[in-house]
Please model this.
Amino acid sequence: MNIILLGPPGAGKGTQAQRLQQECGMVQLSTGDMLRAAVASGSELGKKAKGIMDKGELVPDELICDVIASRFDSGDADKGFLLDGFPRTIGQAEMLERLLDGRSRELTAVLLIDAPDDEVVRRLSGRRTCAKGQHVYHVEFDPPKHEGVCDQDGSRLIQRDDDKPETVRNRLEVYHEQTEPLIEWYEEKGLLRRFDGQRSPDEVNDRIRATLATKRLEAEL
Ligand SMILES: [Zn+2]
Model:
């Protein structure tokens, strides 16, 4: 099972990725994690990436692809992978395709978890994070007992910059412009499956697992 998770920020991709990883044993490949790991390993690739990131520049597609390729070749994703956050552009999708072709591997499905902009803004901008620990709340869906204070340790709750409404709107704009064209691209290849990110995480998970079970049966026929 080689899966790509697609969709706007805040639609629940991360949650589903975690659950699929736990339930189906797929290796989750996040480009951020892979880049950090490459840098930590001190490999040639890692040194190149570090130089670019230290300057605050965006890591070029070619380098990200090299990092993904080296991960494929390490063998730990032989049984299947789950890509979350990559590809984000048609250019990246084309590179990924060449990379997989060259290894006689193919995508099983592209899972689109979708949600309207207003819902995304409501979800993300209502998020409050504990200044001390990892505790996360939501002013509307999961409020703390006392406003602005963490239930667990009494720390102050803050709104991360990433969750500020104007930042969320900007991220959505980038998504619509650069990433959304991938929906049609993968649809034409017959790989796209749609899921309603406004449903509960359990429901979305059930539907994804049903879809993957069907895919598995098809593959065995
Ligand atoms: Zn806390």
